[in-house]
Amino acid sequence: MSDYGTGEIGAKPNQDHCTMDNTGSNDNWKHRSKGMKCETCMWFVEKVSKFEATNPIFGRCRRHAPTMNGYPATFGTDWCGDHKLDENKI
After folding, report:
1. How many domains does the chain have?
2. Domain, as residue range, for 22
């Protein structure tokens, strides 16, 4: 038997294989990207600031070769599809 139960058009998948969170959602990928921010990525290089540490984390993404404008500037809370977790930053 397939995951779509009766096989009828518009039938919903069986709930047997899905996990539900406390809101009743079947989204297994919810919060998956919560830790996948630039500040935890191995390609992110933080800009050292001489100002107070209360400023948001800011740096450059060095995932791809620089353009004529240099490397893209990003905040530590940004994210993209090229994230690769850096074990030294977690």
Report:
1. 2
2. 1-30
The residues, any chain, with a CB within 8 Å of residue 68's CB and separated by 6 or more, are none
* Average pLDDT for 42-65: 84
Distances (CA, A) of 73 to 4, 10, 24, 63, 66: 45, 45, 38, 12, 11
Q: Quick one: tokens of 74?
A: 């990003």
Same domain, 45 and 88: yes
Q: Check: pTM over 0.90? Answer yes or no.
A: no
Tell me what the mean pLDDT of segment 48-52 comes to.
74
Give the whole-angstrom CA distance, residue 46 versus residue 39: 8
pLDDT band with cut points at 50, 70 and 90 for residue 73: very high
Q: How far is CA 66 from the centre of its chain?
A: 22
Q: Are residues 26 and 69 in the same domain?
A: no
Cβ count near 32 (within 10 Å):
9
